[in-house]
Amino acid sequence: MLLPLMAVLIASAWPAAASTTTAAAQPAAACQRRCGDVDIPYPFGIGRGCYLYTGEGDVTFGLTCNRTADGSYRPFCWEYEVLDVSLRRGQARVRNDINRWCYNTTTRSMDAESTWWWDVSDSWFHVSDEGNRLVVVGCNSLAYVTSVNETEYMTGCMATCPSVGRLENGSCSGMGCCEAAIPRGINSYVVGFEEKFNTTSGAVGRCSYAVVVEAASFEFRTTYVTTGDFVESTGGKVPLVLDWVVGKETCREARRNATGYMCVSRDSECVDSRNGPGYLCNCSAGFEGNPYLLDGCQDINECEDSRFKYPCSVPGTCINTPGGFRCSCPDKTTGNAYFGTCEAKKSQLGVHIAIGVSIGIALLVIIMSSAYMIQQKRRLATVKRRYFNQHGGLLLFEEMKSNQGLSFTVFTKEELEEATNKFDERNVLGKGGNGTVYRGTLKDGRVVAIKRCKLINERQKKEFGKEMLILSQINHRNIVKLHGCCLEVEVPMLVYEFIPNGTLYQLIHGGRHGSRISFAARLKIAHEAAEALAYLHSWASPPIIHGDVKSPNMLIDENYTVKVSDFGASTLAPTDEAQFVTLVQGTCGYLDPEYMQTCKLTDKSDVYSFGVVLLELLTCRKALNLQALEEEKNLSSHFLLAMSENRLEGILDSQIQSEQSIELIEQMADLAKQCLDMSSEKRPSMRQVAEELDRLRKLAEHPWGRHESEELKKLLVRGSPSTFSEIELSNGYVSLTDSAYLGIQSPR
C-alpha cells in the first residue's frame, strides 16, 4: 500500500481571489475566526482577504473549514487537519499520516513502498526540531529521516524485539520502539525503511511503522507491536508541530520595510526566528492579543484581571499603568505598598535617613555589580583554560616545542570569529552530519575552511589533543591539509586548507561537466582517492578510518587532482568495544550493510563506500536516487544485479564505452564488485584496491599491440606467472580472467 504523500506537496492551488496586496494588509472585519472548536487567529484565515498572502510559492496561511465524517467542522491546511495555532510560539499543530510497511511472510516481500516524502521547501513553515521526534515501531525495524536531495542530513534508529515479554508501555528506547531527534530548520524530509532489516513477522504483528510526531503527544503501547494496532488506535494520524514565520528577513531588515513590516500593533515587538532568517511578532510584556492587527495588543489590567493575584499588599492600592502597574500607599502615609509597610509619615529627619540609606544601597549595588563583572571575566577565562586543557592543549604545545618542524597552529576563538565574520551564514561552504564548514580568511591572508564540529562525548574530549597531533602530521598530496584547531571552546574547531573548485559529486552529477569526463581522468581520480585512503589505513599511526567515504567528500581541483576531506578526531581505528557506535551515522547509499548491522566501524567499511564511488565514476549515476524505478533506486544493488545477469553494459556511461576497451572497463567494474561484497572479510584492502587501480591506469595509458610482449607480462604478473590462469588480448588491451593476481578471493 503505497503511501507517497509527496509532501504536503505544496498542495492545493491558491484561492482564486488572492491579490497582490502588501504583506502588512489587514483582514476584513467580517472574517470567520473559528472553525469547530479551533480559533483561527490572523495571519491565518478562512476565505478571501482573511489571511496573510505572502506573494511567494503556492503555500499561504489560508485555511478551509470542512465538514468531517462525524458531522463536525474542522480547519484544514492543504490536506491536513489543523489542531491549533499558537501566535506567541509561532507554531501550528496538524495531523500527520503514519507510514506503515508490512512484511508478507508468504512472498517474503513488502506490501508497501519503503519511503515517504514531505516537502514544503517553498513555504514559510519548518518542521519543529524541538517539538517533534522520528518514532519507529516494530520488531527488527530500521527507518531513517534524510534530506530530499540526499546530501544534507540523515538520522534514524532501529527497533528490535529480543523478547516480546520485555516490551513496556511508555518505553521507547529500542525495545519495540525507538526515537531519534530531527535536524533543526528543515522544511523537507524523506522517511524511509531499510529493506534489509525490516522483517517484522512471526509471533508479533507483521507491520513496521515510522512517523515524525509531536514528542509530547506520543506514548508507546505494547499493543502497537503485539497486535499491530498503531494505525487503528490513532486513526492513522498523529500530531505534528510546524514552526512558521511571517517574514523571511531578520527583524532589523524587516523594520526597514514600512509597508511590509508585520508587527503593526503599537505595543508589539519583533522576535527573530531560531530556525534561520525570518521573524515573528509578540505583544510586549504587560500586553496580550494579536500583534499582527492594528491595536491588537491590549494592556493587561493586573489590578482587576482575575487571572492574576492582587499584586499589592494591604493597605496598598493598585494603580494600573500601560504594560504594568504600581502600588501606592494611602494619603498621609508612606512606605512600601508592595510589601504592606505603609505607615504614617514621620519627621523630615526620617526622610533624610531614608535617602542616605538609599544612596548607600545604590553605592553597594554598584560595587557588587563591578565585582560581579570582574568575577565573570575571570570565570570566562577559567572556562576557556579548562576547555583548552581538557582537549589536550598542553600535550599539543609540548609536542610543538619538541618538534620544530611541525606546521600546526592553535587558534583562539576570537581569531576564527574574525576570519568568518562571526560565522556569518553567507560564509557557509556546506553542512553535514558531523558539523558545518565555513570559508574564512586569516590575518596573514590565507583562505581556509573552518569546521565547527557537533557535540562529542567525554572520551573524545579527553583524547582530542592527541588525535589532533596525529592528524596534524598527515602529509599526503591527496588529503586535505589540517592547518590547526581551536581548543578553548566546548566543541573544538578544525582549520583545513581551502580547495575552491568543488567536489567529485558536483563534477559527476552537476551537469556542467557530467559524462564529458574521460575514462583516463576517472581512473586518475579513483586511483588518487584510493591512495589517500590506503595511506590513512596502512601508513598513518595509529590507522585512521574515514567513516564517511563518498563523492561529496572528495574535492577536485582544475587538474582533476583529488583531495580527500571531512575526516576528524572521531575516526581513529577503534581498539576496543567501547568505541562501538550506538546510532548508525553516515550517508544513505554509501553505508556498509555490515556496519549498519553490527554498529562496528572498520577499514573495510571505507572499502565498501569507495566501491560505490567507483560505480558513480563508471555510470555517472547517483548512489541513491529516490525518483528512479524501484530496482534502480540503490546504485550498488542495481549494479550487482546487472553483473549477475551479465548486462553490465546497460548501466555504464555511454561515453567511456565509446572511448575505452570494454575489457578494461569490466576489470574496473569487477574491482568495484569485490569492494561491495556483503562480507567485509572478502573485500580487498584499500592498499590492494590502490595497486589494482594503478595497474589499470598503466594499461589505459600504454598503447599495447595485439601480441604478447615480455614487457607486458612483467607489468601484469608482479611475481610468478602462476598467479593468473589466462591472459586475453582484445582491442589492443590485456585482461586477466582470474582475480588471483590481486591476492583476493573472488566472490562466488
TrEMBL record:
Residues 423-705 form the Protein kinase domain. Keywords: ATP-binding, Disulfide bond, EGF-like domain, Glycoprotein, Kinase, Membrane, Nucleotide-binding, Repeat, Serine/threonine-protein kinase, Signal, Transferase, Transmembrane, Transmembrane helix. It is found in: Membrane. It is a single-pass type I membrane protein. Pfam families: EGF_CA, GUB_WAK_bind, PK_Tyr_Ser-Thr. PANTHER family: PROTEIN KINASE DOMAIN-CONTAINING PROTEIN, WALL-ASSOCIATED RECEPTOR KINASE-LIKE 21. This is Protein kinase domain-containing protein.
